[in-house]
Amino acid sequence: MLSICLALSPLALVLTPSRCAAPTMMAAKIPLPTALEQMGCDDAMWSKIRAKEAFVKLIEAGDEAGAKERLEKLRNAPSITGAKMEMPAVLASWGCDEALWEAARSKKMLFNLATDGDEAAGKLAIEKLKAAVAKEAARPPRPPAPPKPPKASKATPKASKGGSSAKKLGEYTLSGEAPAGVDLATVEKMLADRVVAKLAKDYAAADKLQEELKGLGVYTNDRQRTWSSEPSAKQQAQ
Fold this sequence. Notes:
Layout: E1 4-8, E2 13-17, H1 25-28, H2 34-38, H3 43-48, H4 52-60, H5 64-75, H6 78-81, H7 90-93, H8 98-103, H9 107-116, H10 119-138, E3 173-174, H11 184-199, H12 203-215, E4 219-221, E5 226-228, H13 233-237
Parallel strand pairs: 3-5
Antiparallel strand pairs: 1-2, 4-5
Helix pairs in contact: 11-12
């Protein structure tokens, strides 16, 4: 339900957000006067009364009769009892329907205008209320929040600076054609064993495997992690 607060001057109507209907901080802190407590007003009822300052002024002026009369009127008010305020029938002839009545935050103001028979002010208030309701209805809905990106899986290998995934231990890529008659599975195992030997700083075993690979016609490029059947210029010079 749209919350709209209507504050009516003698010939003008001002629409403000519904938060204006809330009691001010100062009013909320005003303690329950002893005189009102003796009249039967308790803390629960006092907390629902918005115009606390008016009661304080009546008590300070010694007008306890006026304060009591005002209190009795408030006892049956919908704002105190929580009951639903019914729309006066005359408001329908002024252009107000049940839906508009439900949208009005300050029903008491419209109720009082209907009770007083102030048709001009009542129609003006209803037109202002209609405009506010139409404006709220025409407001575009908020776009949905963008979905959160999925969390990266821990099992996904991190990308290297070059953008490609890191290679597995001992993984060498064949560059060009493999030597004729060479068993690829044997070469891959020897390459992996050579890497393991180098990581273990067993350079003698690593060199031995490299010589065995050369005997098969396999030459490695450790920097690029490739192997081929053609030696590099440096390897040819050795």
